[in-house]
Design a protein that fits this description.
The complex is a heterodimer of chains A (293) and B (430). Helices cover 76% and strands 2% of the residues of chain A. Chain A has 11 helices and 2 strands. Chain A has a two-stranded antiparallel sheet. Chain A is globular and about 65 Å long. Chain A starts with a helix and ends in an 11-residue tail after the last helix. With 430 residues, chain B is of the alpha/beta class. Chain B is built from 11 helices and 15 strands. In chain B, the strands form 2 sheets. Chain B has an 8-stranded mixed sheet with strand order 2-1-3-4-5-13-12-11, with helices on both faces. Chain B has a 7-stranded mixed sheet with strand order 7-6-8-9-10-14-15, with helices on one face. Classes of the chains: A mainly alpha (293), B alpha/beta (430). At the A-B interface, helix 1, strand 2 and helix 10 of A face helix 3 and helix 8 of B. Chain B: InterPro entries: BCAA_transport (IPR051010), Leu-bd (IPR028081), Peripla_BP_I (IPR028082), TAT_signal (IPR006311), TAT_signal_bac_arc (IPR019546).
Amino acid sequence: MDFGPFLLLAVMEGLVSAAVLALTASGLSLVFGIMRVVNVAHGEFFMLGAVLAWFVSQFVPGPAALSFALALILCPLVVGLLAAIADWAVLKRLNYEPEATIVATIGILYILQQAALSLFGPDARPVPAPVDFRVQLPWFGYAGYKLVVVAAAAMILTLLWVVLSRSRAGLIMRATQEDRDMARAFGINVDRVYAGVFALGAALAAMAAVLVVPITQAHYLMGGDPLLLSFITVIIGGLGSLRGTLIAAIVIGLTDGIVSTFFAPTLARIVATLAVALILVVRPQGLFGRTAP
Amino acid sequence: MKRDDLKVTPTRRDVLKGLGATGAIALGGLSARYAQAQSAEPIRIGFQLHRTGIGASYGRWYERTATAALKVLNDQGGINGRPVEILFEDDGTDPRRGAEVVEKLVMQARCDVVMGTLFSHVVMGSAPRAGELRVPYLVCSEGHHVASGALNRWVLQPGITDVKSQVQSMAPFVTQNLGRKVTMVFPDYAFGHDHRDFFTAAVAAQGGEVIKHIAIPPTETSFTRYFPQIPRETEVLYHVMVGPSVLTFVKELGEFYGSGARPQLFGFIDSLEAVAIDSPGLEFLEGSHFWEGHPRYRQDDAGEHEDLYRAAVGVDANGASVTDPRDVSTYSHMFSVWETLFILKRAMEAAEYRGPADRQAVVEAMEAMTEFPEGLEHPQGPKLFNGRTHQAFGLQSISQVRNGRLVRVHRTAMEDGFYPDEVDYTTMSF
């Protein structure tokens, strides 16, 4: 294949990774930014979204687009609710101690993974795409749905941005992030904010998974890669900075697409991990993070 | 009257006789019961099963096939008149856990032999432990690792042909009918490397050339990014993939070529095992060719044994479960479980197996075997067994996708797959 089409394909693939990564990582970033909780179970919320999407696609009759639309609304809600319960039942009892929450979320990771194995089974299961068209370029064909994923992710992220920066809920979240005790003094129910943020973070991961599952199939072990890449993104972007996370997701997604198309996906993973190490040495707070007060 | 009295009243001699007879019966009865107790002790076969992990769809069908074969075997009277049990233990398709499973089956569950492993990295991880435990380890894997001499005398593969033999016997069909410039896509671990090495050599021997190797990590979930590496002058794209993402792989391959020009496709059915060939997005496979170990769709010339086997394992004429048409079998691999179990029966009977002390005799009995005729015990077809390399050789099928079904267009000859021995396990110590 010539260089031009090769690059085009690489960029398209990169954009898809970037879109999914941006959604997943923004969830992780929110949870860390506002709650200071390192959520190791984030990838499993992603997996749950995909697995639930499969259940919806199986049990909702009618065209694929309908069941998919339903999954896109229902799955993040269910996963968010589950996350809120986890927050109330586990994290809150630990007073959000950083070390304790890491260990606790590792536990949640295994519980969710094994529950999925028991209830969903060990097989990878396909979920039909809501739209089925192919973009035929002179050099290669491309799944139209992948472009839909990019557009949908961009829309959801814009919505998230508006909610965080313009709405009252966003204001409360930012206030809690700024100073938890002061927020409480002003009558904000911090417990409820935390539960809500944890749920929102998980729901974002689930949403990313529902979008991507028609491309990759649902599988109970699919949470590992998104978790690793989300961590890389959040560290490079700056812990707790949503803008940093988005920019880092685009950079990492595109690098991943281009490096893995031109060279090898393993090399892309090596490059990303090295970049994290480099950032941690040179600029520990990340590209857009603020230094700890 | 006196005579009558004598008749009814037992004399001392009568009583003694009676006692003796009763004693004899009692003794005989006891000893018979004892003998029965010894022979009624079931033979326990440990089955290393990929119930979870990347081999799960194979594991599901290996378990069903083993259970079906076990029923036939026990209905026939078991092994040496003893009933047979199979203990399934999940290894998560993980080599490290594989070794632990072998140990658990042998040390804790007291299994007489261990069998059933498919994924070659699990075989590689478990075989040394089986050797240390001195337990026959019968793999159903296709990998060349047994015949290459990399393992030990306790490991045998009597139920399925290895990759080296498979690809060597198919290469002439590929170069003569599809094209001579081949690009290979394969998983980047032992099984894929067998394909890379032996198919490349086999194509070269036929005057063709493999112009590009594309290795894909077995845990990969997205494949489009690998396809631009396929050189434009490729005439045949040879693909073999494994794991849960195989459907994604073939789908993305179809998307990539779309309606544009594409090379001929020759796939190992592994790329589609447990996947319905009429899945949406796979229409582009129409007309392409696949290797099949055992034709998934019932062929018109299927014999009586094939039909008996198909019914016993619960597979319909389309290769799917009779209870769920969406649950497609791993038909090209699972026959090896069935056949291995019956070969084990023959070997244990030849060795007059009584207990773990006779394990070595089982291996030696198997090494002495040479031929397995087609029949209920060998529904996939006849096989030759090489006791020196511990490897079986059978017939391979090449099928073409026609109207969304796989139709066999070529069957290799036994000698197409022969190659010089690389090891003589019989000279190794136990």
